[in-house]
């Protein structure tokens, strides 16, 4: 029976998650499978692979044919490297210990590369978060400035309104004072006119003819 190593899609819309399966080459894509040997999550950076290494190596050595994507995953996990090393052991090129040592050295280098990618990803996320924070601060500062300008404009408008009301009150008070003074002046003038009208008028003829006895005696010459 021809077998294939391929991916079986799972997850949800917009977040695909795959199972790594061994299936009959004639089976439909989402049909029955012989064995599930791992999972593949491409939504992380780097992609997350959870693989049963021994079973994957077994099926590769049994001649199972992987799809292109499955082959890349198996290569990245070192399955084909271990197959090559075991072939070298069988040919007598080196022993099992040397094969394991070579594989562990390769795995250590691969882990360094993976760690570097993760560090770069974390740094990129941190830088992006810092930029977003700065942008948010700038937006908040702009909003605060607009609010402060609006409050300042409202305060100026209120001060101008209060000043205008105070000026109107001052003008009204001055007008009332002027009216009061004018009214008092008119009243005083009316009182003066009334007093002048009620005062007795002296007769000038009477004043000229009226003489005292002493004045008459002075004017009459003494008899000799």
TrEMBL record:
GO terms for cellular component: cytoplasm; small ribosomal subunit. Residues 191-224 are annotated as: Disordered. Residues 194-204 have a biased composition (Low complexity). Residues 205-224 have a biased composition (Acidic residues). It holds the Pfam family Ribosomal_S16. SUPFAM superfamilies: Ribosomal protein S16. Coiled coil: none annotated. One of its GO terms (biological process) is translation. Keywords: Ribonucleoprotein, Ribosomal protein. One of its GO terms (molecular function) is structural constituent of ribosome. The keyword S-adenosyl-L-methionine does not apply. InterPro entries: Ribosomal_bS16, Ribosomal_bS16_dom_sf. Belongs to the bacterial ribosomal protein bS16 family. HAMAP family: Ribosomal_bS16. This is Small ribosomal subunit protein bS16. It comes from Hoylesella saccharolytica F0055.
């Amino acid at each position: 029976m021809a077998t294939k190593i391929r991916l079986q899609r799972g997850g949800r819309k917009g977040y695909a998650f795959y199972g790594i399966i061994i299936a009959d080459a004639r089976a439909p894509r989402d049909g029955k499978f012989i064995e599930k040997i791992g999972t593949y999550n491409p939504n992380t950076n780097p992609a997350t692979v959870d693989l049963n290494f021994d079973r994957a190596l077994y099926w590769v050595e049994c001649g199972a044919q992987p799809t292109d994507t499955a082959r890349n995953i198996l290569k990245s996990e070192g399955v084909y490297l271990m197959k090559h090393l075991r072939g070298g052991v069988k040919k007598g090129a080196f022993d099992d210990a040397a094969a394991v040592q070579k594989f562990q050295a390769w795995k250590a280098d691969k882990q360094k590369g993976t760690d570097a990618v993760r560090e770069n990803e974390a740094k990129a996320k941190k830088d992006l978060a810092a930029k977003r924070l700065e942008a948010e601060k700038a937006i908040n500062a702009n909003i605060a400035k607009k609010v402060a300008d609006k409050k300042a404009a409202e305060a100026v408008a209120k001060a101008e309104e209060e000043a205008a009301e105070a000026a109107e009150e001052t003008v009204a008070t001055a007008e009332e004072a002027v009216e009061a003074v004018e009214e008092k002046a008119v009243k005083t003038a009316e009182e003066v006119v009334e007093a002048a009208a009620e005062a007795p008028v002296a007769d000038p003829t009477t004043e000229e003819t009226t003489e005292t006895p002493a004045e008459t005696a002075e004017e009459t010459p003494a008899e000799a």
